[in-house]
Amino acid sequence: MKTSLFTILALSLPALAQTTVKDALVKHWKTSGEFTIAVAKAMPAESYNFRPNPEEMSFGQLMAHIAGVNLNACANASGMARPALPPKIAEWAKDTKKVDVDRETALQFLSDSFDFCDKAVASMTPERMDTVVGPPARNLTGFEWLWAYFTHTAHHRGQAEVYLRVKGIKPPDYRF
């Protein structure tokens, strides 16, 4: 009897330790935001208009791009209203080729976008994770929106780390 009870308890521990997909998304979106902001802070203010070549976004524009598309993805996924763009970012969004984004504006926008995404992800029900939403050309489930743009952030954060290295700056250590 004792052996059977012990076996049942031992086998059930892994099940009790499992997290849901939502729990994992909440955790990793938060970590992604913290790490992305650390990468953004590593670039000095005077280098926020740096671009490795003319075809690339400047570092500041790249940070604004990450923040802006995260707002869209998290709003689509959760159904929460997308926050309005700050004035300097709205100006950049109208002419992304010509308007630079300074360090202070980029850092605040990144921080605000990840705060919004943290709330959006935490608000999602299992049903919302499975609901297909978005514009006709981008119909994805709530989960797919979050996963796709979590990956999008990682892609561009890696690009930002290359910008830092080109400038001779060691990026922050990877966090996961």
Can you tell me about this structure?
About 3% of the residues have low confidence. With 176 residues, this protein is mostly helical. A hairpin with a 6-residue loop joins β1 and β2. The protein has one domain: dinb family like domain (Four Helix Bundle (Hemerythrin (Met), subunit A)), CATH 1.20.120.450. The chain is built from seven helices and two strands, in the order ααααααββα. The relative contact order is 0.19.
Key features?
mainly alpha; two-stranded antiparallel sheet; 7 helices; Four Helix Bundle (Hemerythrin (Met), subunit A); 176 residues
CATH topology: Four Helix Bundle (Hemerythrin (Met), subunit A)
**How would the global form be characterised?**
globular
How many domains?
1
Q: What is the SS-derived class?
A: mainly alpha
Any idea of the CATH class?
Mainly Alpha
What's the CATH architecture? Up-down Bundle
CATH superfamily: dinb family like domain
What is the count of DSSP helices, taking H or I runs of 4+ residues? 7
The profile of the biggest β sheet is: 2 strands, antiparallel
SSE topology:
Layout: H1 2-17, H2 21-42, H3 59-78, H4 87-94, H5 103-123, H6 126-130, E1 132-133, E2 140-141, H7 142-166
Antiparallel strand pairs: 1-2
Short description:
With 176 residues, the protein is mostly helical. It contains seven helices and two strands; from the N terminus they run ααααααββα. It has one domain (20-166): Four Helix Bundle (Hemerythrin (Met), subunit A) (Up-down Bundle).
